[in-house]
Amino acid sequence: MAQIPTNDLRGGMKVEMDNEPYTVVGTEFVKPGKGQAFNRIKLKHLLSGRVIEKTFKSTEKVELADVMEQKLRLLYQEQEGAVFMDDNSFEQVTVPFSVIKDNKQWLKDDLVYDLIFYKGVVVDLIPPTFMELTITETAPGVRGDTASGRVMKPAILETGAKVQVPIFIEEREKIKVDTRTCEYVSRV
Amino acid sequence: MSLGFDSSLTCKVDLLGKRAAALKKARQFFENAGYIEVDCPSLVKRATIDQHIDPIETELGFLHTSPEYLMKRLVAAGMNKIYQIGHVFRKGEIGKKHNPEFTMVEWYHTGFAYEEMIKETLEFLQTFLGTFETKILSYQDLFINFLQIDPLHTNVQGLQKAAELNEVSIDDNLDFDGWLNLLFSHVIEPNMAMDTYYVITDFPPSQAALSKIVNDKAKRFEVFFQKMELANGYFELTDQEEHIRRFEKENFLRQQMGKKAYPLDEKLLASIEKLPECSGVSVGFDRLLMLSTNQDNIESVLPFSFDQL
């Protein structure tokens, strides 16, 4: 892969260090007026999410990681994983649930997801930030609940995600949720 | 191409007013102290020769990285107290505290001792930042205080160990001064107390730049405030031969790093023969403004940072 001077690194870039892929989360240029220039780089491991900090001489180069992001449509889910398709090439990819992890709760057929490939293999799935989903299960709101200070209640969405919704929301209603925080945003 | 109006500029209206007022205040300070303003050119024929400072080269010459060489020629010609406020340029320096083009305040005073220049530099800084506790520490005491290591009696291994103890690591090889710089910027600076002026004096001879070395200590000082380097001053070197040796050493170090060596500035060297005993200092004006207006990014106090062009 190509190399890049640490001076040109910007947040979001993917680099490879000690054969491991990282996302650059922050960079700081440090230079005494008359002294050596350094770049302090904060990196998040692409797979484990562990954050580390590294310092380089600013002239030093680092390897860019072979990381690619692709939008793929979810076709269906199987026992072990989910099958996605590229809308342009019709090529199909099966992504094991062990990679999708907690984001399994946001999988809905026929929607488009961002898949992160490292060296050609899917390593992460990012759901749309906001999704509109139907509530499949929630207790009916009880009159008087608000008086006791209860304004939210648990609900289960069609994808299996559990979120807190205002008590006036009923089963089979469609709501907008923020997938980053699992929070209710609005009625649709 | 995006043609959206850059709304970040609107936020600058207030700060640029403060910038104008600060420029006026700086000039007032020098006028009261009896200095004469000079405006030496930014486009110069001879580059600054410094291992870690890279000039921007143009078709006709270089953009100066500081007005030092030309101001010294004026001092040698008989100007006793001069100051310059102007833009200087440094290649590759870009970050929250750096912009490739920035404003430097530099002044020289003949017959002015090192200690007197430290005092005047603090007075200048206080004009903008207010009066706070001042700690004057030698480079040696600074390292002993913050790192329990004597920088004058250790080696690369000793510094490397001090770095490890402070959880600072680097993937590259560094020379002795490189390790000192790393420890300074990664351990000492972040651990400096807020609201305290730190004056660092008596630098190791290897970091003398163009200051006189007396009893194995470089008569160079730096001032830090709110963990930020603001001023760098010298009791100026007046020995021509020593100048040549220092420039040649910097050129040698540059070449070792794979950088270009530059021809020596003969006109400067010729003037050094006539340079009287004097002290000189430079202050990063934009950083001063960052601190006096509570901004943590240099771009906030510049009309346009390089990234905003």
Sequence-ordered SSE layout with sheet pairings:
The complex is a heterodimer of chains A (188) and B (309).
Chain A: E1 3-5, E2 14-17, E3 20-30, E4 38-45, E5 51-57, E6 61-64, E7 67-77, E8 81-85, E9 92-96, H1 97-100, E10 112-118, E11 121-126, E12 130-138, E13 152-157, E14 162-166, E15 174-178, E16 183-187
Antiparallel strand pairs in A: 1-6, 2-3, 2-6, 3-4, 4-5, 7-8, 7-10, 8-9, 10-11, 12-13, 12-15, 13-14, 15-16
Chain B: H1 12-32, E1 36-37, E2 43-44, E3 56-57, E4 62-63, H2 68-76, E5 81-89, E6 101-110, H3 114-129, E7 133-138, H4 139-147, H5 156-165, H6 176-191, E8 196-201, E9 213-214, E10 217-218, E11 220-225, E12 228-235, H7 240-256, H8 266-272, E13 278-284, H9 285-292
Description:
- The complex is a heterodimer of chains A (188) and B (309).
- Chain A has one helix at 97-100, and strands spanning 3-5, 14-17, 20-30, 38-45, 51-57, 61-64, 67-77, 81-85, 92-96, 112-118, 121-126, 130-138, 152-157, 162-166, 174-178, 183-187.
- By secondary structure, chain A is mostly beta strands.
- In chain A, strands 1-6-2-3-4-5 form a six-stranded antiparallel sheet, with no helix packed on it. A five-stranded antiparallel sheet of chain A has the order 9-8-7-10-11.
- The longest helix of chain A is centred in the middle third of the chain and has 4 residues, at 97-100.
- The model of chain A has no long low-confidence stretch (mean pLDDT 90).
- An eight-stranded mixed sheet of chain B has the order 1-5-6-13-12-11-8-7, with helices on both faces. A three-stranded antiparallel sheet of chain B has the order 2-4-3, with no helix packed on it. Chain B has a two-stranded antiparallel ribbon with strand order 9-10.
- With 309 residues, chain B is α+β, with helices and mostly antiparallel strands.
- In chain B, helix 2 packs across helix 8 (266-272) and helix 4 (139-147) crosses helix 6.
- Chain B has two domains: 7-132 and 234-308, Bira Bifunctional Protein, Domain 2 (BirA Bifunctional Protein, domain 2, 2-Layer Sandwich), CATH 3.30.930.10; 139-194.
- Classes of the chains: A mainly beta (188), B alpha+beta (309).
- Chains A and B meet through strand 3 and strand 5 of A and helix 6 of B.
